Amino acid sequence: MPDHLHDQLVFTPADVDLARSPLAGRFAADTYVLGAFNPALARLPNGNLLLMVRVAEALRQPVWDGAVHAIRWEDGAYRLNGWLLSDVDRTDPRTFLVAGGQWPTFGLTSLSWLLPVELSADGLEVVRVHYDRAIAPAADFQSYGVEDPRISVIEGRYFLTACCVSAQRQGTCLYTSNDGLDWALQGLILDHQNKDMVLFNGLIGGAYWAQTRPLGTSYPAYPPGAKWRAGPSINLARSPDALHWKPHEQTCIRSHAATTSTARLGGGAPPVLTRIADMEGWLSLWHGVEPDGAIGIYRTFWSLLAPADPAITLATQHSPLLEANAALTAPLAEAMYVDNVVFTTGLIDAGDHLIIASGEADLACRITHLSKDALRPS
User: Fold this and answer.
1) Membrane-crossing residues (predicted)?
2) What is the tally of structural domains in the chain?
3) Can you give the residue range of the structural domain that contains 97?
């Protein structure tokens, strides 16, 4: 049986109807879909799959009057703010750096909102797009949008974490649902700069657990010759109610000094409890970034974590599980603005194989059916 049983793009920018966007008619400027990507994934009560797609909506002509403009949500309205071209660096197509501050300061070239897309049970066909249940900015900590959702199903209830971006903070907010379609915002749950909080798909010792990835501007060094590389790591936190979180003392996954392919890393899909290579554990799919140009090369890696203590790694593989697939995005060549990026954000255990949802090239949604035999511990 081949490792890749199926691999395709299931949702692209062309599939988004901007006439039904939450931003439609809210300001006098044309927009387009920069990307429809990094989707959360969950099984709905009817057996179909839910793909919660991040839609990055951008101004078609962001530059006028000598300034580059960005869309921001503020006080219930969408506003177009401008920064002088002489004060910005537009090297990265996703952001622009603003000069003159004591800290690295940036604006976003798009504003993101979340679109529920219902797929067939195998995840390979679109059944319905639920524009009426889209998630858009609704609080001041979401002024630059809602990004990179992940969904976990715990005790029959749906939990969606997402990165919320504003000038005040970058944190994680939580939405909950009883059916996977009607969502209620519960507010901020992590207040430090953290873009990759994913909840485990189940309780551990009666508590909610999550992987986190806080960022900093500097990191103390490991001693010379250590097997680990200083930098961001995937940490753990636990909670009695999914709202109030305490960091776990032991780190979960660290960057290995022997390779540059995981020089930077972060959470991917919410871990699921399954069996890999005759071992039961929490399967965690995470991303590693190899330095290369302005953005880097994003790949997906895996680790199997102990059922009762996810700080313990039972098995892992040093080669990537998924890499960017240029053949998939070849028909979208004119819309490409980055390459060498696969960012996995959803995982379903389908018995002898896995259904994996990823963002491909920050552009489209990719579904991969992968045999569990592909997970070969190093």
Assistant:
1) none
2) 1
3) 4-219+226-374
* % of the chain at pLDDT higher than 70: 99
What pLDDT, in 10s, does the model give residues 4-24? 689 999 999 999 999 999 999
**Over 70: is that where the pLDDT of 212 sits?**
yes
Q: Are 2 and 371 in contact (CB under 8 A)?
A: yes
| CB distance 31 to 23 below 8 Å | yes
H or E element at residue 327: helix 326-329
Q: Which of 312, 330, 323, 304 is nearest to 370 (CA)?
A: 323
Q: Compute the radius of gyration of the chain from its Cα atoms.
A: 20
CA 228, chain centre distance (Å) = 24
Looking at residue 234, the DSSP 8-state letter turns out to be B
Q: Which residues contact 101 (CB under 8 A, 6 or more apart)?
A: none
How sure is the predictor about 126, in pLDDT bands with cuts at 50, 70 and 90? very high
CA 357 → CA 7, 78, 201, distances in Å? 10, 30, 16
Q: What are phi and psi of 93, to 5 degrees?
A: -65, -15
Q: Which amino acid is at 77?
A: A
The single-letter code of the amino acid at 74 is: E
Interval 22-31: pLDDT, tens? 999 999 999 9
Do 118 and 49 touch, CB atoms closer than 8 A? yes
